[in-house]
Amino acid sequence: MKKGTDGPLVGAHMSIAGGVHTALERGAKIGCRTIQLFTKNSNQWDARQLSEEEISRFRELASSTRIAPLIAHSAYLINLAARNAPLLERSRSAFLNELLRCEALGVAALVLHPGSHGGAGEEDGMKRIAESLNLVHEKTGPLHVRTALETTAGQGTSIGYRFEQIRGIIDGVEQPDRIAVCIDTAHVFAAGYEIVSRQGFLRTMKEFDDILGLERLAVIHVNDSKKPFASRVDRHEHIGKGLIGLEAFRLIMNDERLRDVPKILETPKGEDMREDVRNLAVLRSLVRRR
Questions:
Q1: How many structural domains comprise the chain?
Q2: Does the residue 184 lie in any domain?
Q3: Any domain includes 5
Q4: How much of the chain, in percent, has pLDDT values that exceed 90?
Q5: Nearest to 24 by CA among 56, 64, 52
Q6: What is the pLDDT of residues 193-241, one digit of tens each?
Q7: To 10 degrees, the CA torsion angle through 131, 151, 68, 57?
Q8: For the segment 44-67, what is each residue's pLDDT rounded down to a tens digit?
Q9: Which of 65, 135, 227, 266 could make a disulfide contact with 28, Cβ separation 3.0–4.6 Å?
């Protein structure tokens, strides 16, 4: 198995079909230095508890492959801004469970779509998300894993398509050090942040730093976009094949401030992962020799 220790800090989201440890095996097979995974079925609420054997096997593989940091993504069903009380309670319980699974596996950050307010308004949604995170934090005590709030495209009533909204959530969290941020390139582009040109990219990163702080950036989802700038529609495309284009990814790959931030693909692929291999090669090819 290849060990992910050389080159830029890039990887891809990996399937856990066959067990959580298989995500590491798949990542190592194609030379990922970092990976993202679900710790359970992403389209189901419930999951059986991970066994000690599963946890041990995962941690041993993480050590031997040296793939790090490990990033997880929470289930799509979770909505910490839900207006419906049973759905909100179920979301909070599910997110608590996922945080604990990540802690057991040694995952550094759990990426979370902030939530959808469902018509209650953005301020109400932001407040409910912060309340949800506070309630979850009260039940866990200190953990190593951080929650990484993901920037969104702004579809429907989703929250997080402006940096200010994520800032508003963090400001309502009583333990803000437990909160990080995930930038998704396709999402910010669709939300109206111009990252295609050097000037636009630098302006966007300055805005991010001013509002949220680059030290809070835990992961970048490197995805091109099938949908136009400011369309508010989330559709991922292969690197350089979409409407963002290669220049933005060249800027990301060569920004010294982002060197140690894991850059993870969430682009379409088949079981053989050949698309990941191509996209990773493209990203590596963009790095200027130092």
A1: 1
A2: yes
A3: no
A4: 93
A5: 64
A6: 999 999 999 999 999 999 999 999 999 999 999 999 999 999 999 999 9
A7: 60
A8: 898 889 999 999 999 999 999 999
A9: 65
Domain membership of residue 2 (yes or no) is no
Q: Which residues of 178-211 are buried (b: 16+ CB within 10 A; e: fewer)?
A: bbbbbbbbbbbbbbebebbeeebbeebbeebeeb
Residue 1 domain-assigned?
no
Cα separation, 75 vs 123, whole angstroms: 24
Instruction: State the CATH number of the domain containing residue 83.
Output: 3.20.20.150
The span from the CA of 270 to the CA of 241, in Å, is 17
Mapped to the 3 state alphabet, what secondary structure does the chain carry?
CCCCCCCCCEEEECCCCCCCHHHHHHHHHCCCCEEEECCCCCCCCCCCCCCHHHHHHHHHHHHHHCCCCEEEECCCCCCCCCCCHHHHHHHHHHHHHHHHHHHHHCCCEEEECCEECCCCCHHHHHHHHHHHHHHHHHHHCCCCCEEEEECCCCCCCEECCCHHHHHHHHHCCCCHHHEEEEEEHHHHHHHCCCCCCHHHHHHHHHHHHHHCCHHHEEEEECCEECCCCCCCCCCEECCCCCCCCHHHHHHHHHCHHHCCCCEEECCCCCCCCHHHHHHHHHHHHCCCCC
Strand 10-13 to 263-265 pairing: parallel
Contact 35, 65 (CB under 8 A): no
Question: Could you tell me how far CA 69 lies from the centroid of its own chain?
Answer: 12
